[in-house]
Write a structure and sequence with these properties.
The structure holds 2 protein chains of 2 kinds. Chain A contains 3 helices and 11 strands, in the order βββββαββββββαα. Chain A is mainly beta. A 6-stranded mixed β-sheet of chain A has the order 8-1-2-11-10-9. In chain A, a hairpin with a 2-residue loop joins strand 10 and strand 11. The longest helix of chain A has 9 residues. The N and C termini of chain A lie far apart (45 Å). About 9% of the residues of chain B have low confidence. The chains are: A mainly beta, B alpha+beta.
């Protein structure tokens, strides 16, 4: 594969389509029982047992202050791993793996989606549709989380 | 550079540094030949190792150290405080160099020449040419005690031959002692086996890796022995060497040494040769066979055992199986898993000695620094603790020792006025108590000045003045652990690192332990640390709060009681109950944990009475589920600072239950 091609896991929240660099994704799981963690930040849904490992799960809808959605058969937990932190992210559905050339990725304009552009890596152009590329590292940055927990 | 070797190098180098520190302090008190030998050996091995790895500064410095030690060895100069200090200084620099190597993978430029000059200054004779290089020591040397020596010399006199036979068993050999027995049996046909390494008992008990050595007196030649041994299977290598008279070294006891006419000469030979044979193995104290295992492998093993325990619990939970055979099988499985758990846990256990060994040096430096005379008495250094705890407990203990030296022990003048011995004592004691290990740091100093503590607490705003009158003694001493509290009037080098006892407490609590203070005025202060033996698997009581399951560590539970609504009283707006004359506050877990509320109509309230130090608190739960062995898992760094929660565990049905952090709840 050429150096400038990157692969992304494409998923949906509401009507918007997002992408996460596949190198940061460990697995994609179906919805499973989640144990609530008291006193955790609001967007932390709880913890799950991922084959013997305890993994915190965050609800991306809550993280981005989007209205809650019902859990459906399509709901998935995308397990991402960044800098030794492993976290599950609840999304409405995970659709496919797509390839984007570097030239098809543009910096995120200030207002692209319902999400603060700080958390974006850019926007990918793919066959006429736009893929919002999430920056997982920033999304999970501890200080960020602590700040949010204070609110 | 090969990382694998670097790790081994670092680990061994640290051991030698520790040895050097330990024996240098010993040398100060007790300057015997053995101690000097021991120091020399460590320095020499370190030099060799560093040379092999290409660390020039390390080998240069150890080389100078060796020169000075050589002079001490040969009694050309005698040991005094100055020499000990410069040697200790040198060890500090060595340690710094080793730290650099650990961090950067190679040596960083450090100023070693000041120390070298200092060492040279001590070494007035400067007889560098007398330095013995290991390369010249090609000849094999053999160690015998006096009895063996006599037998050997007699045999040699009779024209018999002594063979040193090194046998290595094949790696896959299972019945090692049986193979060894066959070797013994065969060789006894040739003559007398006079000595074995390890001892015969250890070989019989399979207390050896896959290598042993024996010395045989016989008239037969090498080939005959070799031929007879090749018929035994599962031997990897057999190495036979001739022992010649002039290469024999006798390990002498002190009394004999005094009688030895050319003592220096003989023992000079002795230290060289013992050094050679013990190279890469052990100091004379430790002769057990060990295997270095990466801690991560043990962690993996422990995780697997944890998984096994979870599955076992799951099997136990299958209720509709009252089949006799099934139950027996599960019971058997239970026994095996718990034995396996113990065995893996033991493999992770390290004697606390590894931490304690650093402290004589710390106290030595402290007493110089503060011009107080302080003696450190260590007890129970053989007590074992989980490796992870060992790694973490060093700093809190150093802090407590500094604390004792700084705040506890009085100035010599003051002690004399009080009629105490001029020299203060710090006692460091470790022992096992059930499933806990207790570490006590006590001093015979002035105790705690309660009024001083109160005054300070009011000054820094921890408590209000009017509150201070009603505080019990233990409540006052617990103020010492509050963040922002430090009684040091001036910031000294010792206690002025900006951290207080609160850091010690936090660290110990993060290890699942507790700390308490006890003191008698003018007699001394004792800090008692209680630590769990293992961090990974504990007994816990499972409780239901709302519709959620939580685990409470059994170690902090006193009892469970059921009380009626009428028994609950309100004192200062807090709910309490009176239990056998004690007032116990109630914490309603469903409120604290913000769980769903079960219906309030229940007449009775189930309380789990938990203790923390002298305090008892009743935790109100909705139901008790039962006692269970649980595997503690971390919530991960993403959720590490969640209040009230110490971790999580996986239940038999695969669900996750959270473990309550009792220390934070009370």
């Amino acid at each position: 594969m050429a150096d400038n091609i990157r692969q992304f896991v494409e998923f949906k929240i509401g009507d918007e389509e997002y992408g996460i660099d596949i190198l940061q994704v460990k697995t994609i799981e179906r919805m499973m029982p989640i144990t609530r963690v008291p006193k955790a930040p609001k967007f932390v849904e709880g913890v799950i047992n991922l084959r013997g490992e305890i993994v915190p799960v965050i609800d991306l809808r809550k993280r981005f202050d989007l209205p809650p959605a019902e859990t459906t058969d399509n709901t998935r937990i995308i397990i991402v791993s960044v800098d030794e932190i492993t976290v599950g992210m609840i999304v409405d559905s995970a659709t496919e793996v797509v390839q984007l050339a570097q030239e098809d990725i543009e910096p995120a304009p200030p207002i692209t989606s319902s999400i603060d552009s700080d958390y974006l890596d850019g926007v990918g152009k793919l066959e006429g549709k736009l893929l919002i590329l999430l920056n997982v590292t920033k999304l999970l940055k501890p200080q960020e989380i602590e700040e949010l927990a204070q609110i | 550079m090969n990382n694998q070797y670097l790790d081994v190098f670092l680990e061994e180098a640290r051991e030698h540094i520790e040895n050097l520190n330990q024996y240098l302090l010993e040398l100060e008190k007790n300057p015997t030949q053995e101690v000097v030998d021991e120091i020399f050996r460590s320095a020499h091995t370190l030099k060799g190792m560093s040379g092999t790895m290409g660390f020039t500064q390390l080998s240069e410095l150890t080389h100078e150290m060796e020169n000075l030690l050589q002079e001490i060895r040969s009694k050309k100069i005698s040991v005094d405080e100055r020499i000990i200090d410069s040697l200790l200084n040198c060890v500090d620099v060595l340690e710094g160099l080793i730290n650099d190597i650990e961090e950067h993978g190679q040596e960083q430029q450090r100023d070693i020449y000041t120390v070298i000059q200092m060492l040279k200054g001590q070494n007035d004779f400067g007889l560098n040419e007398t330095k013995v290089s290991a390369e010249n020591e090609k000849k094999d040397a053999f160690n015998f005690n006096e009895y063996e020596d006599r037998v050997v010399r007699k045999a040699l006199g009779e024209g018999l031959k002594i063979w040193k036979i090194n046998v290595t068993l094949a790696d896959e050999c299972l019945l090692k002692s049986a193979r060894a027995f066959l070797v013994f049996k065969t060789l006894e046909g040739f003559g007398d086996i006079i000595k074995t390494e390890p001892s015969v008992e250890d070989i019989e008990d399979e207390k050896f890796e896959n290598h042993f050595t024996l010395y045989l007196i016989t008239s037969r030649d090498k080939k005959a022995i070799l031929d007879s041994l090749t018929s035994i299977s599962e031997l990897k290598t057999v190495d036979i060497r001739n022992v010649e008279e002039d290469s024999i070294v006798v390990e002498k006891t002190d009394s004999v040494k005094a009688a030895d006419e050319n003592g220096t000469n003989e023992s000079a030979k002795s230290f060289l040769t013992t050094e050679k044979t013990s190279k890469g193995t052990h100091t004379f104290k430790k002769t057990t066979k060990t295997l270095r295992v990466d801690i991560e492998r043990l962690d993996t093993l422990m995780n697997l055992v944890s998984e096994l325990i979870i599955i076992k619990t799951r099997l136990e939970d299958i209720k509709d199986s009252d089949h006799q055979a099934y139950r027996e099988t599960v019971e058997y499985l239970e026994r095996i898993t718990s034995n396996l758990h113990d065995a893996v846990m033991k493999a992770r256990m390290v004697p606390i000695e590894n931490v304690f060994n650093r402290f004589p040096r710390v106290v030595h430096d402290l007493s110089r620094e503060m011009s107080k005379k302080i003696d450190l008495v260590i007890e129970g250094a053989e007590t074992e603790l989980d490796r992870t705890v060992i790694d973490e407990i060093g700093d809190p203990l150093i802090h407590l020792i500094r604390n004792a030296a700084d705040h506890g022990i009085e100035d010599p003048q003051e002690r004399i006025t009080k009629g105490k011995p001029e020299q203060g004592t710090i006692n460091l004691k470790a022992y096992q108590d059930g499933n806990n290990v207790i570490i006590e740091v006590s001093d015979d100093g002035k105790g705690i000045d309660l009024n001083g503590v109160l005054k300070r607490a009011i000054d820094v705003g921890l408590i209000k003045e009017e509150q201070s009158k009603n505080l019990k003694e233990y409540e006052i001493t617990s103020l010492l652990f509050e963040p922002g509290f430090s009684t040091a009037k001036k910031i000294t080098d010792v206690s002025g690192r900006g951290v207080g006892l609160d850091v010690v407490k936090t660290k110990i609590e993060s290890l699942g332990g507790t700390i308490e203070i006890d003191f008698v005025k003018d007699k001394g202060t004792t800090f008692q640390i209680r630590l769990p033996l293992t961090l990974a698997i504990i007994q816990a009581l499972m409780v239901l709060v709302g519709d959620e399951k939580y685990a409470i560590p059994l170690s902090s539970i006193k009892e469970t009681v059921t009380v009626t609504k009428e028994q609950i009283k309100t004192v200062q707006k807090r709910e309490v109950i009176l239990l056998r004359g004690n007032v116990i506050p109630i914490v309603r877990l469903n409120e604290v944990l913000e769980t769903k509320k079960l219906d309030d109509s229940q007449e009775d309230l189930t309380l789990v009475i938990v203790k923390k130090g002298e305090k008892n608190v009743g935790l109100a739960v909705d139901d008790l589920i039962g006692q269970q062995e649980i595997v503690i898992k971390s919530l991960g760094s993403f959720l590490k600072d969640i209040k009230f929660i110490a971790g999580a565990t996986i239940l038999g049905n695969g669900e996750v239950a959270l473990i309550l952090d009792i220390n934070k709840l009370i």
